[in-house]
Amino acid sequence: xxxxxxxxxxxxxxxxxxxxxxxxxxxxxxxxxxxxxxxxxxxxxxxxxxxxxxxxxxxxxxxxxxxxxxxxxxxxxxxxxxxxxxxxxxxxxxxxxxxxxxxxxxxxxxxxxxxxxxxxxxxxxxxxxxxxxxxxxxxxxxxxxxxxxxxxxxxxxxxxxxxxxxxxxxxxxxxxxxxxxxxxxxxxxxxxxxxxxxxxxxxxxxxxxxxxxxxxxxxxxxxxxxxxxxxxxxxxxxxxxxxxxxxxxxxxxxxxxxxxxxxxxxxxxxxxxxxxx
Amino acid sequence: xxxxxxxxxxxxxxxxxxxxxxxxxxxxxxxxxxxxxxxxxxxxxxxxxxxxxxxxxxxxxxxxxxxxxxxxxxxxxxxxxxxxxxxxxxxxxxxxxxxxxxxxxxxxxxxxxxxxxxxxxxxxxxxxxxxxxxxxxxxxxxxxxxxxxxxxxxxxxxxxxxxxxxxxxxxxxxxxxxxxxxxxxxxxxxxxxxxxxxxxxxxxxxxxxxxxxxxxxxxxxxxxxxxxxxxxxxxxxxxxxxxxxxxxxxxxxxxxxxxxxxxxxxxxxxxxxxxxxxxxxxxxxxxxxxxxxxxxxxxxxxxxxxxxxxxxxxxxxxxxxxxxxxxxxxxxxxxxxxxxxxxxxxxxxxxxxxxxxxxxxxxxxxxxxxxxxxxxxxxxxxxxxxxxxxxx
Lengths: 277, 392
Fold this sequence. Notes:
heterodimer; A: about 280 residues; mainly alpha; B: about 400 residues; alpha+beta; 6-stranded antiparallel beta sheet; 21 strands; elongated
């Protein structure tokens, strides 16, 4: 009996490790490919971008420099676009989420469901819809922003509504008002501090999603305004493995810390709820 | 138990002028507010269902605690919400010192509110919670910290000032909520079931302290509760509500002794209520189980009657009995024994002083104490249910 359970544990552990390896292997390959000189293996396309081929050091970081030089505009624009996204989602999503919970009106459930709809529609469909409806402003970078906001807004709204629903916020507002705080004072001193955590997590989520979003952006991108995923796509279609690996690694360097912070904050929130706060 | 509450109440009433102050207690300056609160003809209907309030008026005694007592759905919370300014009435007005407050928003009324679920701000410390109202009023930090410390002293938790709200117990949270409401020196203190989220032992403890605190501060207080024990021990005056109406107002003793309706009779204390009694030509009153003598000016004809559980007396051998009853069950409660009796098909609840052993096999010969049968003419009694014993 004991042996069987030991065997089962071993098998489960083995399978888990195997699956993890399968999932992580591509990521590791890409990261390794970004600084290992693969020309030693004889499959380099280095000569296409001005290298000597077959010579040099085993480890090289020159591809990062190459990517940073060539795709800096996309990287900067991607960060700018993500920050704009966060700003618009905060401005629209926070009052909107608050209204959905605290100023419930007939049909607000339908609106909340509609808000989530873009998540289940292919991104390309959203882009095509936007292009058809607003063809006149085609090529403006803020049409790209609009498409991304459609896709990211639900995350901010959900973050706000779930926090507001997790405790009796209405009574807190009443308490603040009874103590002499007007509407704006209540917002500033009670509602926003209560939502602080939701806003931080929501903003990070929106930033991460916007920065890595490809589907919606693909058709809305303009030659002058492309996000970083578009640059990644370009490196994979038109450049060498080392270059695209370096670009991907740079992408991961930006996005993984954000995801780790979201994860850490999410865990803290759970423990706070367990404490009854 | 209800009798005990009554005795306690009358004791406190008698000694109101000479309250014993525990030595550890800090000296409290009375709020000395003479704020006269009045509500006139308040009505309120929500979208669905019956009206929540159908025209209630009351003048609250300045400097005293008025308890609004009623079952859920009686409109008591709506009434409090209107006084607080959180609910706007359909018609009617709220006056404070003859000033019409009906359209004044909550934040401009200067009333203190204490909620059932404490409603402390989770992102602030205990002291910052108490300071909140002062902060909103622009009181400098040092001054408001000092005032908050004073208030926490008042509710006896000065040591918790720096704690986070989720680090303290429910009883402590409610103390913080009281301190927070009092810190702004409110004209009126409004409390919405402040103790009902606490467990029984803590509730009794806090009730006693709250009673003392409110009497010392002499602040006009409106205290909403569904718990008659709380209402009777805290309320200088009681307002009993049901179905959006005020059924009766008065002190606990007045209401206990002379309820206006079968509802009030059964809601305040335990009672055997007989909604379908009849006053006979000879002055006696016919109840479903016996015909008994009664005084009081009730016309001949249908009436309703009430017997408190303590109205019954055991009859010794050879004395005249009003009726004999079967013992169904008996509960020893310490000072008394509560006995469930049955006369024919009629159930009766009785309480006797401890020391008598009750035997289910032997019928009891009983008598109703002289003057204990309470009789009133029928008015609202007709809508009352047929059940004869109501033990809240």
